[in-house]
Hints:
The complex is a heterodimer.
Chain A: E1 4-7, E2 10-14, E3 19-25, E4 32-37, E5 43-49, E6 55-58, E7 61-66, E8 71-76, E9 85-92, E10 100-102, E11 106-111
Parallel strand pairs in A: 2-11
Antiparallel strand pairs in A: 1-3, 3-8, 4-5, 4-9, 6-7, 7-8, 9-10, 9-11
Chain B: E1 4-7, E2 10-13, E3 19-25, E4 31-37, E5 43-49, E6 56-57, E7 64-68, E8 74-78, E9 87-94, E10 102-103, E11 107-111
Parallel strand pairs in B: 2-11
Antiparallel strand pairs in B: 1-3, 3-8, 4-5, 4-9, 5-6, 7-8, 9-10, 9-11
Amino acid sequence: ELKVEQNPLFLSMQEGKNYTIYCNYSTTSDRLYWYRQDPGKSLESLFVLLSNGAVKQEGRLMASLDTKARLSTLHITAAVHDLSATYFCAVDDKTSGSRLTFGEGTQLTVNP
Amino acid sequence: NAGVTQTPKFQVLKTGQSMTLQCAQDMNHNSMYWYRQDPGMGLRLIYYSASEGTTDKGEVPNGYNVSRLNKREFSLRLESAAPSQTSVYFCASTRTLPSPLHFGNGTRLTVT
């Protein structure tokens, strides 16, 4: 059974600082997704990473994928309050059809 | 463009009651999903439908049934609600993986 683990689960950081969220998964896959969820809201897609070494950036967020290590990272640069949200990674295990398995989520709080 | 529409938004049930959560998408997507979200557990897949006419179990299918009524609609039924089914339920759809999922706004269900 595919397992997806994120760490940390809770992250409190100051504005202007950098930090990284890690996503490990237990099976061979080269399809990794990042989503954002604001409190009480739905999830929205941030990035889709589809190959080893893939890197995508949007504003202060950059995601990368290392399929050999079964690891994805979401790097936050010079955090601002608007980035406060819960971030989920998800993995698509192609061998199980169309299933998408999510990690537990990382709740990020950016303090002024 | 409505995207993914879930009804109802809120529901309170007594133990043993039944209900159906409705989900419809207007993006001509092939695949549809039902997830539940509980604190500290991320999103867990209940059932999914890779294409019209097919449905498959996810991680936590017990106590639920689904119907892919047509390409647009995917309903989730609780035949005999239990307090353990208190959760936020999200419906999602995608053209096909690895395109990202589009999520509805969720249904908050409380079973007393």
